[in-house]
Amino acid sequence: MSKYTVTLLPGDGIGPEVTQAMVKCVDALNLDIKWESMPAGENALGEYNSLLPEVTIESIRKNKIAIKGPITTPVGKGFRSINVTIRQMFDLFACVRPIKTYLPDKLAKYKNIDLVIFRENTEDLYAGIEFELGDRKTEKIIAEINAMSDKKISAESAVSIKPISVFGTQRIVRAAFEYAVKNGRKSVNCVHKANIMKFTDGLFLKIFYDIAKEYEGRVEYWDTIVDNMCMQLVKVPQNYDVLVMENLYGDILSDLCAGLVGGLGLAAGANIGADIAVFEPTHGSAPKYAGQNKVNATATILSAVLMLRHLGETKAADILENAVIKIIQDGKYVTYDLKEDRNDPSAVGTQEMADAIVKEIQG
Ligand code: NAD
């Protein structure tokens, strides 16, 4: 029996290429990992008539660790994002996204960024509690709200509900503080809009300060309103360390921060629950590049680094991360998006960059 069995979802579009590159880098570390490759996304529709077949759900439930490529959400009614479904199905409440400068100085727009976003992953406007324009249920909800509130909703409206719970907030805030303390981080910052949403974001902020008291003296803490935070991140991202926030702000700030350090090809992510964790790059399936051996697999490889740290394989994680840094800093065996000129003919393909990382690991 292998030491670890990991569910692998290659996904759609560029997913199979970037996960293939990731697997070869992780295998070079000789950790005795068995990959259980499972269908999910458009590739599963033909055989299983489902975007997320039961066999895949069972595999994740059994192995408790999964790593996935991006999955296409088919356009049209009736298709819910599989990514959101997986997060909710396994209650993966913490979306953890490290944002770090890996690019060499000549390419980096910002130097020395090293922050981590903790995004609440199950509540907020992503809870999926929406009421469609014209639906009878919507009319009823609007009538009820209008009867008890002095602020009136137009009868011709769609409505989305934003639940922020005590339990949901406590566990994400605690996860952020625990991470900060365990990883020697200086500060935790709560990002919110409590000046406008006094009851929902106000609750999030209050719980943040209640929990922060438990960490007094071990880590600094403060809060910033989300619009100001966008401006501060673009001006002085180096001032920030661990950021904790609700789902929607986390979604937006994650991409903003990915842009600060060189784009989606470098942005790794983890979705962590009480006993199951799913790791994935932040980017989508980029269908126009599928099958071309062109895109950057770094985000998926760095997601594997997060997975190894989660498994307690710190040494292997350091070796892999350092090999990625070396190859990116050298700038020779890198994909087009990591070149000064995106049309540079010396850019290598997805697999060739992974081969260079493997060579670096093997010394
Ligand atoms: P996308 O991230 O797939 O692509 C946007 C652009 O970013 C690409 O055209 C490309 O220029 C660049 N890019 C993305 N990944 C790259 C990489 N690894 N290397 C280099 N460049 C890269 O976003 P989209 O076009 O909005 O979405 C396409 C599909 O992916 C949609 O169906 C969407 O629902 C899905 N999606 C899935 C996930 C996920 O599985 N977690 C996340 C986002 C979007």
Notes on the protein architecture:
By secondary structure, this protein is α/β, with parallel strands linked by helices. It folds into three domains: 1-96 and 264-363, Isopropylmalate Dehydrogenase, CATH 3.40.718.10; 109-119 and 165-260, Cobalt-precorrin-4 Transmethylase, domain 1 (3-Layer(aba) Sandwich); 124-163, no CATH class. It has helices at residues 15-27, 42-48, 54-63, 82-89, 136-148, 166-182, 200-212, 226-235, 247-260, 298-310, 314-330, 350-361, and strands at residues 4-9, 33-37, 65-68, 94-100, 114-120, 130-131, 159-160, 187-192, 220-225, 242-245, 268-272, 277-281. A ten-stranded mixed sheet has the order 2-1-3-12-11-4-5-10-8-9, sandwiched between helices. Strands 6-7 form a two-stranded antiparallel sheet. The protein starts with a strand and ends with a helix. The mean pLDDT is 95. The structure holds nicotinamide-adenine-dinucleotide. Nicotinamide-adenine-dinucleotide (NAD) binds at residues 18, 70-73, 83, 264-265, 280, 283-286, 288, 295-296, 299, 337.
Summarize the structure.
This protein has 363 residues and is α/β, with parallel strands linked by helices. It has helices spanning 15-27, 42-48, 54-63, 82-89, 136-148, 166-182, 200-212, 226-235, 247-260, 298-310, 314-330, 350-361, and strands spanning 4-9, 33-37, 65-68, 94-100, 114-120, 130-131, 159-160, 187-192, 220-225, 242-245, 268-272, 277-281.
